[in-house]
UniProtKB/TrEMBL annotation:
The keyword Transmembrane helix does not apply. Residues 188-386 form the Tyr recombinase domain. The keyword Cytoplasm does not apply. This is Integrase. One of its GO terms (molecular function) is DNA binding. Keywords: DNA integration, DNA recombination, DNA-binding.
Length: 403
């Protein structure tokens, strides 16, 4: 048996029956353990057993758990310390930079201020429920009220991932988040989209403007905002009418950064209509003209959609300026990202298979596409029902004409 038990005398202590004794013999357990957070061997003491047999049983249990790999160190690590360690040693090296910044923001703003001082092992489902209730009511940093259910749901996901990691590292036996009752459930988002005529009208009013090409890429080809801004000339194969999507522009700490696409499936090749390819050619010609005019002053990063001096466009500027543009034209209010939803809806309504639409959009799974566009599927189901009804119960002449 690894470890030892030492006898000592306590003064003015109570015995097992609760009777006060001037002197009392007690037993302390000394043992070593592997700190799963640091990987180092540490010394620990469990003091004050009133019976030697209880001290021996405790030491036997510690030895058994260590031999089975089930022992969790008694380090009094706070949730703040653990989350900071998790961010630096795991999250930072396993996720994209933009994802890491999102995790860090949630941990700094929503977790550490409210539960950071709690010992990791002392975190309970009740404490987590109380945290979410507080965030929903008073969680905004500016003090003007609570966070949205969606924001609290993101916080929930980050905390759950961190605690699951703690269980794997044997810092916790059980993830307390599994027992909470206050999980926020946001209402399912349904984007505002344009129908065919509205999209055509938007393209018409955007003709020859800086917004014409990004609108076409998002509304017709289904590209994300950052994917539009990250396109370069080498990504376009005019002979095969293909666009290769292999990067995106994102904003990190107010700086435009070139990044990999959102997921592995977002790294894709799509086919583009001739009309979109002509807009790309036109934009390339404009960029070449600006390059000739500005000479060495032109900041050539190779992006097709860029500022007049060649510098990359901030994604948030595109979103804001697009919103102002459609407002100035008196068009129905939508976000720039809703153009992508518009493209998806038009594809599905026109009969494009769900699998094909999912690949064009760059979703990581077909279930994401199906979940996002359930309302469109309902419309296509109604159309299918009507077609079957017409085929079975329509006039004979109509049926014969359809053969």
């Amino acid at each position: 048996m690894q470890g030892s038990i030492k006898e000592r005398i306590r003064k003015n202590a109570r015995d097992a029956q609760g009777k006060l004794r001037a002197t009392l013999k007690v037993y302390d357990v000394y043992y070593r353990y592997m700190d799963t957070l640091t990987g180092k061997k540490k010394q620990a003491i469990k003091r004050g057993f009133l019976r030697k047999c209880d001290a021996e049983a405790y030491l036997l249990d510690i030895n058994k758990k260590q031999s089975e790999g089930l022992y969790i160190s008694t380090t009094d690590i706070t949730l703040k310390k653990y989350l900071e360690e998790w961010l630096s040693s795991y999250v930072k090296i396993n996720v994209r930079t933009s994802t890491y910044i999102g995790y860090e923001r949630i941990i700094r703003n929503h977790l550490i201020p409210y539960i950071g001082n709690i010992k990791l092992k002392a975190l309970t489902a009740t404490k987590i429920d109380e945290l979410y209730a507080h965030l929903l009511q008073n969680g905004r940093a500016d003090g003007t009220g609570g966070l949205s259910k969606k924001s609290v749901q993101y916080t929930h996901r980050v905390l759950n991932e961190a605690l699951e990691h703690a269980v794997k590292k044997q810092l916790l036996y059980f993830n307390p988040i599994k027992s909470i009752t206050n999980v926020p459930k946001p209402e399912k988002f349904q984007a505002t989209i344009y129908n065919t005529n509205e999209l055509l009208e938007l393209l018409k009013v955007a003709k020859d403007s800086p917004y014409e090409l990004p609108i076409a890429l998002a509304g017709i080809c289904g590209l994300r905002r950052g994917e539009c801004l990250g396109l370069k000339e080498d990504d376009i194969n005019f002979d095969n009418k293909q666009i290769s999507i292999s990067r995106q522009l994102i904003l990190i700490n107010k700086q435009v950064i070139e990044s990999i696409p959102k997921s592995n499936d977002s790294n894709r090749i799509i086919f583009a209509p001739e009309e979109v390819l002509e807009l790309i050619k036109k934009r390339i010609d404009i960029n070449r003209h600006h390059r000739e005019m500005l000479g060495n002053e032109y900041k050539d990063h190779g992006y097709i959609i860029c500022n007049d001096d060649g510098s990359p466009i901030r994604p948030d500027y595109l979103t804001k300026n697009f919103s102002n543009f459609i407002k100035s034209k008196g068009l129905k209010k939508i976000r720039f990202h809703d153009l992508r939803h518009t493209c998806a809806s038009l594809m599905l309504k026109s009969g494009v298979a769900m699998k094909t639409a999912s690949e064009i959009l760059g979703h990581s799974s077909i279930s994401i596409t199906a979940d996002l566009y359930t309302h469109v599927l309902q419309d296509t189901k109604q159309i299918a029902a009507n077609q079957i009804s017409n085929l079975l119960f329509g006039k004979k002449d109509d049926i014969d004409n359809k053969k």
